[in-house]
């Protein structure tokens, strides 16, 4: 299992090399991995069906209670199968769609990394690992949206997607930590297994709000939906994979995953139903009023994400069954439709639906697949989408509360979505032939196999719903519900209320479609003028505000005057130190003059005189000379007080320092007084204050010892263990040799720094 | 920068070998008496700096034989090499190892990883200071 | 002696900080040098000052004969002295380079060089 998750990352590393070898068949070659992963996950089905769930453990950072545990149950397996299965076809498709692109290898690297992160996300058992994978998907998504990085618009959209999802990710992190505090465990399987009443916990509201902030941003719920259509700047395989079938469902996954634990609170279900319904209707409406084929699909994805959120919120067994069915159906048809959209774009050279028409003659296979997928989108028999939609309506009708409102919203959305399905499948392919920028040809095989197989699977599942149901869906519904559920999927339920609603919406939708060419411009105009007040405008205002605040604080704090920085640092550091000293330790002013010899007094006075003269003099030479005096005074102190090694070192360094200063410093101008008297007195006051604090600190520390010193160990063991009689040297090269090693590396770096600064100058002079 | 004083020339020629010998002496006795790699390296650097002031940077480069930068690298290499015995025997990094090589007569040569390490420190210190001084002098010419 | 040195170290720190706050870049370097001396002395003083008992073992003995000076701060200061020299050399060359490029030794004039 560890290998299954990580294999995507591993393959990503070698993908560029493979690309060089396999050339134009790179898509097919890489698709072997997700295909075999699909088989592997499918082979886990019997085990999961028998046992409910598997937990596979790999310790990672045991000290921090972070482990690479994997939780395999019905829900995660459904997602894993969707990711690897659809991933297989996406890779094949991308190989054809981006054939000859100069960054093709880079594309596959990011795409495979994304796939691995997504698998890690849905299979993680540990909350922290889940979060890490969650952020990895955000980052890879960012890189994929901005894949055409020469395009400024793409970069902007990528950044927007990143900001929105990562801001949500931060909230999610807080939410997950709260959840772990509430339940006492970072393991999902343990949280799900415990029967604690989390919704009575004091943190419940905060945790739910934080987690939902994360899942809503990721899954593009209103009011965070605006980043998803903009993410369509990505190449179409990315849109098909990340922004319809997988990544945007990560939020849905997490809500479904936590539903058994958090779903008992009213806040949870009401928030989900409310935001879900708003998202569903907004998405359907915006889809119908757009013209770009990818935007249409993006908005219809938002509608689907809203629907899924509602169904988790309703939370009845029927609703959860509808949830799983709708999830699978949507991934199948939306992945297919995006690939069709890419094929249309690729072959006709335009993304604008209103400029396409009559393409069935030149692209017959594409047309058939598109119609099949659109049947699912519209929720018509005999495909799997129909079953899902019937279940959806039925469960909303039987919802414990807000049933009427939800049903109305769902039917209204259904009407619009029928129209959207028509836009995607009927408008481009039927009617009179329109002139397109490129003369359309049938799409290459690699671009058709994916949507074709996905649509056929949807058809198969529709005709024989017992196949997926028996295999996995029932188990999956059980894991969202928290306890096993009996499901009954069938294509034909007889004439009932949902069927009537379906048929009604179909009729209305088709009539809307007929008038699309007339109403669309009006709707579009309304949307554009309304956008000024929408959440996206808010996002831009927020970004501008951040820039303004950043510029302001840079002007105030980072003003570039080194003296002020230092002044502030010194004042704050010594102020706080002094305060702590005063309150914790008290002040002593002991000055014992009796324990010093007269020559020691002499040295002390020498040091003082040198320091004061060096700071007061106006002569550079005098300053440097007094530095020499100071250094030799310090060396003398070391020698007098039993530190011969220090004394020698200090003397030698002092000599070399003077040489260095002679070599360099005298190339610089003479001292002049640059600052005003006020600045000098201010600096003097701060410096004096710092000096006083240091003195008090030393005086206070002379009387206390908080820890036992480790020096005695070195003194005792220098002979027996270190085989040396100079204890200082034994410490340097044996006991604490690692410190010394670090030190000589620092020294080397300083030397290299000096070397490069001097050499750089030499190069500068060559090119004036 | 180059001095033309006869006294400095003569002094440098005579003092330098003594200083270098003394620096090696300090390096090897450092484990038992005051001295060691840092001090030895500084003394050696002092010797070469004296020579550089007397005869110029070009002559100093010649007498050093290797570029100061390579001296630096060699020093780091020595220090790293001294970690290998501990690594091979699976002990924590830089654990000391001691060997006693018998010499003719009653004497033994004490050889150890700390000594190799100290030689590395010596070479690094010397290399660092010579990099500073020689390059600075050359940039003035 | 420690209490006397405490006042000396305090004044060294004050002098160092005063010099580092000057606008002239050469004074900044002088301040840096005083500061490193002050810091070394600080460690030396705080760990206690012992007269005439260097941390050396007598020939053939495995333990010192009496109380010796604390070797650990000495090892720390020894590395600190050499590091301070390296840092000083780097700073001095950097300053000379900056002076050559910017043409002034006034730190307040250098504040816009990164734009």
Largest sheet of chain C: none
Strand content of chain A: under 5%
Structural class of chain A: mainly alpha
Mean pLDDT of chain A: 85
Summarize the topology.
The complex is a heterotrimer of chains A (768), B (141) and C (115).
Chain A: H1 2-22, H2 26-43, H3 45-51, E1 53-56, E2 59-61, E3 66-67, E4 70-73, H4 74-97, H5 104-123, H6 127-145, H7 152-183, H8 188-193, H9 204-218, H10 227-230, H11 236-245, H12 249-262, H13 266-288, H14 293-314, H15 317-348, H16 364-378, H17 384-397, H18 403-425, H19 445-463, H20 466-481, H21 497-514, H22 516-530, H23 535-557, H24 562-584, H25 598-616, H26 620-640, H27 644-664, H28 677-703, H29 711-717, H30 727-735, H31 737-766
Helix pairs in contact in A: 1-2, 1-5, 2-4, 4-5, 4-11, 4-15, 4-19, 4-20, 5-6, 6-7, 7-9, 9-12, 11-15, 12-14, 13-14, 13-18, 14-15, 14-18, 15-16, 15-17, 15-19, 15-20, 16-18, 16-19, 17-19, 17-21, 18-21, 24-28, 25-26, 26-27, 30-31
Chain B: H1 6-29, H2 37-64, H3 68-81, H4 84-88, E1 98-102, E2 108-112, H5 113-140
Antiparallel strand pairs in B: 1-2
Chain C: H1 2-20, H2 25-46, H3 71-102
Helix pairs in contact in C: 1-2, 2-3
The gist of it:
The complex is a heterotrimer of chains A (768), B (141) and C (115). Chain B contains 5 helices and 2 strands; from the N terminus they run ααααββα. In chain B, a hairpin with a 5-residue loop joins strand 1 (98-102) and strand 2.
Task: Describe, in plain words, how this protein is organized in 3D.
- Chain B: Pfam families: MnhB.
- The complex is a heterotrimer of chains A (768), B (141) and C (115).
- With 768 residues, chain A is mainly alpha-helical.
- Chain A folds into 3 domains: 1-264, no CATH class; 289-514, no CATH class; 564-706, Up-down Bundle (Four Helix Bundle (Hemerythrin (Met), subunit A)), CATH 1.20.120.
- In chain A, 74% of the residues lie in helices and 2% in strands.
- Chain A has helices at 2-22, 26-43, 45-51, 74-97, 104-123, 127-145, 152-183, 188-193, 204-218, 227-230, 236-245, 249-262, 266-288, 293-314, 317-348, 364-378, 384-397, 403-425, 445-463, 466-481, 497-514, 516-530, 535-557, 562-584, 598-616, 620-640, 644-664, 677-703, 711-717, 727-735, 737-766, and strands at 53-56, 59-61, 66-67, 70-73.
- In chain A, strand 2 (59-61) and strand 3 form a beta hairpin.
- The longest helix of chain A is centred in the N-terminal third of the chain and has 32 residues, at 152-183.
- Chain A is elongated, with a radius of gyration of 35 Å.
- A two-stranded antiparallel ribbon of chain B has the order 1-2.
- In chain B, helix 2 (37-64) crosses helix 5 (113-140).
- Chain C has a domain at 1-49 and 71-95.
- Chains in contact: A-B, A-C, B-C.
- Chains A and C meet through helix 24, helix 25, helix 26, helix 27 and helix 28 of A and helix 1, helix 2 and helix 3 of C.
